[in-house]
Hints:
The chain is mainly α and 212 residues long. It is 84% helix and 0% strand. α1 packs across α4 (78-102), α4 runs antiparallel to α7 (132-149) and α7 packs antiparallel against α9. The longest helix has 40 residues, at 2-41.
Amino acid sequence: MIKYWNENYPVMLQDVQQHLEMVFTALGIAMVITIVLILIFMHQRKWLNGLVYFFSLLYSVPSFALFVLLLPISGLGMKTAIITLTIYCEYVLLRTFITGIQEIDPSLIEVARGMGMTNRQIFFKVQLPLAVPAIFSGLQVALASMIGIATIAATINAGGLGQLLFEGLQTQQVVPLLWGTLLAVGLTLVCAAVLKFVEYLLSHRWKSALTA
């Protein structure tokens, strides 16, 4: 394995970079969409439940099938991969964001409204900070699933760690398969650790702001 790394590490590092680019671009887009949808339909629970159901249906579509279905629209490459990952990520984020916000004590919302806050201020200054644990739990699940799904993107020339896995399958070599698996697992662990750290910082900051 060391010999393979020494001979191929520039390409492997490029695969890691492409993998991270796909995953975090999709995650960022999905987060923006989630926040916008919640802001628009915050007081229309039927619409929110309908959106969760809609994205759950898309989430149930096999990832490879979704890649293929999008090919006539967005073509080969990273663009199709990002669209697919965003769709899968959207269901997880929307469900966890809504759950976290709905579990907040209604009396806290009434207090904020009594202080003259608008619905948008309540969302960003009260509901969002209090929903941090649920939100970051959803982010961890979304990241872990996307890192795995993104490996399939190599079949549509999107790059990423899937290239190592498919190289191992095509050449029947174990070493590329092991490296692809180890790097994917390593990325998942590193991303989870970073999210935990960011969650701690945000929770500490918002807790201080709320008690100030």
